[in-house]
Amino acid sequence: MISIEKIAFSYPKAKKLIFKDFSAEFSPGEAVAVTGKNGCGKTTLVRLLTGIERPSAGRITIDGEDTAGMDLFEIGRLIGCVFQDPARQLFCRTVREEIRFGLENMGLSEDEIESKTAKWAEFFRLDGKLLESFPGTMSGGEKQRVVLAAVLAMGTRYVLLDEPTSSIDMRARRALGELLRDIAAEGRGVIFVSHERSFIESFATRELVLP
Questions:
Q1: Which of 16, 57, 60, 143 could hold 8 in an S-S bridge, CB 3.0 to 4.6 Å?
Q2: Does 50 map to a domain?
Q3: 123-182 pLDDT, tens digit each
Q4: Strands of 189-193's sheet in order across
Q5: Phi and psi at residue 207, to the nearest 5°
């Protein structure tokens, strides 16, 4: 479980706190939509959960471990994040290399790397010729699937997505929603920031409205 316990946060030189005594929980097996008005702190929450920003008070724990003592890589091993523009997270020559990259940094054997690469490429329908494709030429929905495959291959128990429907068409939105539902059904936690009501109503198991 991800637990946010009475955190406070404001950006430098900001006149007011974005979060004050804010608490929330996210459990494996659920898909939670984070919603709220513009400026309420949705993207800030993403940055706090991924460790890019740190709360000035309170704490965030992942499966009981306080993130205050963890670096970005350690948090990333537990919470895989797909940012609003997934293209910024892609830098390898092929889809295969993107999925393999994190696994190689984990020091796994070649057999383990190939097995996990094949598993998640198939899960996200990236196998066959797509495995050797250059991610930069892929559609927005395909890029999202590549990033998801790369983070889940590393064994992350939670997946966090910031406005995942902002740059994909209706067909890709439905495909993404079904994938997120499948990921949650596997016992992983899914958190996505969104303002798309139809997507939220179709694929979220719970909605967290930020004040």
A1: 57
A2: yes
A3: 888 988 999 999 999 988 899 899 999 998 988 999 999 999 887 888 888 989 998 999
A4: 79-82, 158-162, 189-193, 31-35, 206-209
A5: -120, 130
Distance, in Å, from the CA atom of 199 to the CA atom of 194, rounded to the nearest integer, reads 8
**Closest-CA residue to 133 (of 98, 94, 91):** 94
Give every CB contact of residue 211 below 8 A, 6+ residues apart in sequence. 36, 40
Residue 95: which domain range?
26-54+64-209
Is 4 a domain residue? no
Residue 198 backbone dihedrals phi, psi, to 5 degrees:
-65, -40
Strand, helix or coil at 154? Answer: coil
Q: Is residue 7 part of a domain?
A: no
Count the neighbouring beta carbons within 10 Å of the beta carbon of residue 189.
22
Q: Which of 39, 54, 81, 40 is nearest to 189 (CA)?
A: 81
Give the domain CATH number at 119.
3.40.50.300
pTM of the model: 0.88
Burial of 72 (0-12, 13-18, 19+ CB in 10 A): exposed
What total of structural domains would you count in the chain? 1
The H or E element spanning position 23 is: strand 19-26
